[in-house]
Amino acid sequence: TFSIPEYGTTNIHYSLLPKRQGRNAMERAIMEGDETLGATVFLMTRRVDAGPIVNQMSYENPGDKSQGRLYNEHLEEYVDLTVRSVDKLAFAIDARKKADGKKPALPVTPQIPSEMEYQEPLTEDDLFVDFAQMPAKTARNYMNAGGPGATTVIDGERYKISKPSIIDDEAGVNDGITVKAADGKVLHIGKVEKIV
Predict the structure, then answer these.
(1) Percentage of the residues of the chain whose pLDDT score is greater than 90
(2) Nearest to 60 by CA among 25, 34, 23
(3) Residue pair 147/24 in contact by the 8 Å Cβ criterion
(4) What mean pLDDT value characterizes the chain?
(5) What is the pLDDT of residue 48?
(6) Which residue ranges of the chain lie beneath pLDDT 70?
(7) What's the confidence (pLDDT) of residue 144?
(8) How does DSSP classify residue 159?
(9) What is the predicted pLDDT for the residue at 196?
């Protein structure tokens, strides 16, 4: 159905294509500690997230915010990016039609195949947090990634864990749990849910 419109169909993807094609792109970028996050509006093709780029926007990953929080904080920018992208295409189509009535070459940038990076959707196993093996920042990134949600094992039981912060002192912590990571730093985990 995306090929029915004469000039194609746009989509927004929450990564800076051609990197991180596929589902859970933003979640994986947070999990892996990318310093820059962003979104791309592109024209859809048969290959997932591989169509020519119309427009992009980027912002700094602060490292201490969840995927959901970052998405909500930048929602207006995503909407603005989409509107600007559609306007860009519409202006080009209208200008060309007025000039000679021919189908225009659209103002898009093809993705370079050698730079394309497709990634499979995240699973719970991908987001398993092993505090004995992970430094605090890595564990925090896993919990902030969202997607299927980070899990860990505590006293032989599996738990979903979220709302992390790296703290200097356990004094005054009265909710959630605290855990020491492999680098000796302490994490406060604000939300802990047993998986039954």
Answers:
(1) 81
(2) 34
(3) yes
(4) 92
(5) 94
(6) 1, 3, 100-104, 171-172
(7) 97
(8) E
(9) 87
In this structure, the strands spanning 157-167 and 186-194 are antiparallel
Q: Quote the CA–CA distance of 15 and 32 in Å, as a whole number.
A: 13
Q: CA separation (Å) from 170 to 65, 186, 189, 191?
A: 20, 8, 11, 16
H or E segment to which residue 75 belongs:
helix 75-100
Cα Rg of the chain (Å, integer): 21
Burial 123-132 (b: 16+ CB within 10 A, else e): eeebbebebe
pLDDT digits (tens, 9 = 90+) for 153-168: 999 999 999 999 999 8
SS3 assignment, position 40: strand
pLDDT of residue 165: 94
Backbone angles phi, psi at 82, to 5 degrees: -65, -45
E strands, the chain, in order = 10-13, 36-43, 53-60, 151-154, 157-167, 177-180, 186-194
Query: Coil, strand, or helix at residue 107?
Result: coil
Q: What single-letter amino acid sits at 157? A: E
Please count the other Cβ atoms lying within 10 Å of the Cβ belonging to residue 196: 5
